[in-house]
Amino acid sequence: MSIELRNISKKFGEVPAVYGISFTVQDGELMALLGPSGSGKTTVLRMIAGLELPTDGDIFIRGQRVNDVPVQHRNIGFVFQNYALFKSMNVLKNIAFGLKIKKWKPAAIQQRVEELLSLLGLEGLANRYPHQLSGGQRQRVAIARALAPNPTVLLLDEPFGAVDAKIRQELREWLVRLHHDLNVTTIFVTHDQEEAMEVSNRIAIFSQGRLAQIGSPREVYDRPGNEFVARFIGVMNVLELAVSNGVARLAELEFPAHGQADGQGVRIGFRPYAVQVSSDLTQYRYRAMLRHTYFLGILLRLELELPSGLVIRARMTKEEYSLLGLEDGREVSFQIRQYRVLSKEGSDLPPEVAVTYDVSVSLGEGI
Ligand code: ATP
Fold first, then answer.
1. Mutate which of 5, 9, 15 to test ligand 1's pocket (most atoms within 8 Å of Cβ)?
2. Is 234 in the pocket of ligand 1 (CB under 6 A)?
3. Rounded distance from Cα 347 to ligand 1 centre (Å)
4. 3-227: CATH homologous superfamily?
5. What distance in angstroms lies between residue 18's CA and the mean position of ligand 1's atoms?
6. Candidate CATH numbers 3.40.50.12650, 2.40.50.100, 3.30.70.1290, 2.30.42.10; the one for domain 228-363
7. Torsion angles phi and psi, residue 18, rounded to 5
8. Which residue, 106, 117, 134, 139, has most beta carbons within 10 Å?
């Protein structure tokens, strides 16, 4: 394995930022650290790089404990969000910078820079200065510079945060291709769940300085370990129901009480894809009005408004939508195929709650 974090904590003065995090990154893996602002992702990345020291715990790179190894001896390539290219150096000199420090021979430097220019699609730009490059090109130069000395690990902190949506997409594709070609162990920080899902082999999801879950994009989407993950990865409808006469109710919607007594509450969560919609008003149990359709590409998101005013979100393909002859304002019937009974503790993992929170999430059957 390439990297291992064992029970890492970090306090800035008295303020805790990261609590007892443990995970491993395999050789050649592309891992995303995903989470909202302030959840501790950057702090973890900086500790792996050696830019911050953990208050507690151990970090291993290729089996070697590196807590006391300074940044320049960890053989790590680092790319920050804001390019951080040397403004007074052209592309060639920027990429060659680390190699000169390592006292590579000029011919070897020349060869390595040419390799990288071609690998990152920067041919012909060697003599340009950073201000003569587009945002996407600048970021690729930063990646080339980080890769130049053949690092064991590449760390990227919000690498595509500062560029517009189209270039971000292009850079994501570059990163995937590059990783495929070089197979260098890569960890990148993002707060964009779509980016994490699209680019990485595995995602470590952070919440309030703790690891909420770690798994492949598919695992964290299909089997979120807790409500925070379920809501952070993709869209989820969450309903707070009250039990009366043995049934959990919210407005028109009814679910089994799941062991709760009358007067108690039940929290239910379901994905938009679990809502089946029909234009035949008698087909399904509930009625609603199609309040708004969001066109997201081949998938559409539908907002359904029940007569009580409750709004739930559904999802379908463009094809299904046209087959059903739907449009905003239409009456529809719907049912919920699958849902989860969520723990009552709340959507976030408060600091005192351990990651074992996940056992309280169980998959319910449809009604
Ligand atoms: P963002 O996406 O906004 O960068 P993040 O998930 O990367 O967020 P961190 O930057 O790791 O979060 O910050 C985690 C917590 O540690 C935050 O509460 C932050 O304010 C705090 N923190 C980070 N760096 C320092 C520092 N140098 N001194 C004091 N507190 C810090």
1. 15
2. no
3. 21
4. P-loop containing nucleotide triphosphate hydrolases (3.40.50.300)
5. 9
6. 2.40.50.100
7. -140, 135
8. 139
